């Protein structure tokens, strides 16, 4: 689909409103898995050849192999940026968002085998929903061969095109409704003292928004140069996926830079613990008898 984030709608039935997973599934890995096959398309903003690797990530062998570490990497990236980014939210919703976002995978002290299996199954299922969905919304996929009617044109565009863009918009609406209901049902949560106000919100928006805008401009410029050189005819809406991939890649870079800067500042200003031997012993007092 043009909007990779829309793929998360397919795994929402396995996620409760409190952010926990149903059955053995891990919510963050379900969602990350649903994004994983498209990651190479975003990476192509910096590594043009990465687009071709999308054939692997969108295959069934890819679902059970390469898509899993990609999903794990996405969760790791999310854990890096989640705290600093939620710190930019208004205080009235910040605690609720952090409460919902706190159900990520954690390395267990014991029983690691079953835990790893749950992680793997969650990532695979998320990626599988992506690949199956795309099969019926993209040209030359196996879903098109099962339902050739999707290639029939209505008002000059094939049915799979309507499934792509209409499905993306509908899925975004479903995700928005899920998040709204989840936030309404979430407790106020704890707001740390250092997050009592969204300091530097303007600078963060400039950094992240600037990176997203730059990524979109560079990706679109490269695409336009390619179609111009190739002499291909294109319709205005065909630029949307390229625009989204470029903006998304830039947004990730901006978010990582912001999060890294915030964590560096927190580490820099955190108090240095006093060594035990340097602390005064309250039981020892000078005797002046």
Automatic annotation (TrEMBL):
Keywords, alphabetical: Membrane, Transmembrane, Transmembrane helix
Annotated transmembrane regions: 68-89, 159-183, 204-227, 239-260
Comp. bias (Basic and acidic residues): 278-289
Residue numbers spanned by region Disordered: 267-289
Domain of life: Bacteria
The name this protein goes by in its record: DUF4184 family protein
Organism: Streptomyces xanthii
């Amino acid at each position: 689909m043009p909007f990779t984030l829309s793929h998360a709608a397919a795994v929402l039935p396995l996620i409760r409103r409190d952010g926990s997973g149903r059955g053995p599934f891990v919510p963050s890995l379900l969602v990350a898995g649903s994004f994983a096959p498209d990651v190479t398309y975003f990476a192509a903003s910096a590594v043009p050849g990465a687009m071709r690797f999308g054939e692997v990530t969108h295959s069934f062998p890819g679902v059970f192999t390469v898509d899993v570490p990609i999903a794990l990497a996405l969760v790791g990236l999310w854990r890096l940026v989640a705290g600093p980014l939620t710190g930019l939210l208004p205080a009235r919703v910040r605690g609720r968002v952090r409460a919902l976002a706190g159900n990520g995978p954690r390395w267990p002290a014991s029983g690691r085998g079953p835990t790893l299996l749950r992680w793997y199954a969650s990532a695979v299922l998320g990626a599988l929903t992506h690949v199956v969905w795309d099969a019926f919304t993209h040209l030359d996929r196996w879903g098109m061969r099962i339902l050739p009617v999707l290639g029939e044109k209505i008002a000059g565009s094939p049915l799979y095109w309507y499934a792509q863009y209409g499905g993306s918009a509908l899925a975004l609406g479903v995700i928005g409704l899920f998040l709204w209901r989840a936030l309404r049902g979430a407790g106020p949560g704890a707001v740390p003292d250092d997050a009592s106000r969204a300091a530097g919100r303007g600078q963060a928006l400039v950094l992240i928004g600037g990176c997203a805008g730059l990524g979109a401009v560079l990706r679109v410029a490269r695409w336009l140069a390619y179609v111009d050189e190739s002499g291909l005819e294109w319709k205005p809406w065909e630029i949307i996926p390229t625009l989204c991939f470029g903006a998304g890649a830039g947004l990730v870079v901006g978010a990582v830079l912001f999060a890294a800067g915030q964590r560096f500042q927190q580490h820099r200003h955190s108090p240095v613990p006093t060594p035990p031997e340097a602390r005064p012993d309250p039981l020892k007092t000078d005797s002046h008898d």
